[in-house]
Amino acid sequence: MNLLKVIWEETLGMFVDDGALALQAVVLIAAVTAAVKLAGLSPLWGGGLLLAGCLTVLALSLLRKTRNH
Question: How many domains does the chain divide into?
Fold first, then answer.
């Protein structure tokens, strides 16, 4: 049973290493989806926002990690 727990934690850790990064990405995707579907934003602009937003979220996560270490 302990082995299964370790395997689960390691597998989860591969995908959710930084909880803030994952949360920010989900919020970004939800916001852009709402903007495209509800506000009538062009899907091309939505894709551009996703790209810029993901790069920004990734850069902020990297800065956070380097300041902590």
Answer: 1
